[in-house]
Design goal:
Strand order of the largest sheet: 2-1-5-4-3
Order of helices and strands: EEHEEEEHEEEEEEHH
Largest sheet: 5 strands, mixed
Shape: elongated
Amino acid sequence: AGFVPAVIHDHGKESIHVQGEFVALNKIFAAAGKHHPVQLKVGGKEHLALIKDVDYEPAKHRMRHIVFQAIKQNEEVEAEIPITYADVEIPAEKLSLLVLKQLDHVEVKAFPRDLPNELVVDPGKLAQVGDNITVADIKAPSGVTILTAPETQIAIVEMPKDQIAEADASAASLAEDAGKPEEEIVEDSTDSTEDKKETSEEA
């Protein structure tokens, strides 16, 4: 499967350029993501590190380069934590509305031991068009500071395109009815009144 070039950055020290087996590095990234510290062994020395960036070949989506950042257990680090959704009923989906997910991770700061595997948001409040979830709705665990702006939108409820088309068609129909000349309506009303009078006289 070949090898993938990698680099380990360490603050104040010279970067270490290495390479690792393609399969092994893919397994490490799949398990650790960009939020779980990993132990790297290079030349007999161990390095505690976070994965900071992974570069893929656009066509094959095959890993071609990986960047690690050396860290220390007693120093706070910045990392990307994935966002997941609580397994609850989403009112908007029951109404056939569209829940558009706009953010899949947030930046946090914490000691390596406090980095969570994920941050969970509750989509149960998404009920009507315009309802949204923002970073401010995330409850960060103890020891974790969220760096992403609190007003950043995570998900929002929108009306599906087919429903928008139906609403536009209904609005156009109402506008067409409202645009009919008043004379026609008045004449119909007058005719009806005259018919009533004739009926009354015959009676």
